[in-house]
Amino acid sequence: MNQILSLGLLRVFFAIPFVVFGVMHLMAADKMQGMVPSFIPGGVIWVYITGVLLILGASGFVINKSVQLAGYLLGGLMLIFILTIHLPVVIGGDQNGMGSLLKDLSLMAGALSIGSSSSK
After folding, report:
1. 82-111: per-residue pLDDT in tens?
2. How far apart are the C-alpha atoms of 54 and 77, rounded to whole Å?
3. Quick one: how far is CA 82 from the chain centroid?
4. Helices (H) then strands (E): counts for the chain
5. How far, in Å, CA of 25 to CA of 8, rounded?
6. I need a labelling partner for 83 at 20 to 30 A (CA). Which of 3, 61, 93, 99 fits?
7. Residue 3 has pLDDT above 80, yes or no
8. 62-75 tens-digit pLDDT
9. Residue 70 to residues 10, 26, 104, 106, 113: CA-CA distances in angstroms?
């Protein structure tokens, strides 16, 4: 059981949602474009960039290369999502956005934890 729960395998399982979310960003960029805050120029290009970053970060976890950097960058990306997308929605009174905020908060904590527990 300890082998199944080894940090390496947990890292791979943790990477799966990032890959899925990244692919979703690339496949449905037009639908996600409305989530880009209006004060950020570029629109849909940020959805594509985000998709690529999510996949690259997850790849670092899976292939065990630059895990610390991948963890810190994915954690930072989740923090940006929390501050620019989810928090304004929740503050605006839409409590349905709380689930997305908490999901990204959990993903941020996990990514930072994996990044900090990994050696350079």
Report:
1. 999 999 999 999 888 999 999 999 999 999
2. 9
3. 10
4. 6, 0
5. 26
6. 61
7. no
8. 998 899 999 999 99
9. 15, 20, 16, 16, 11
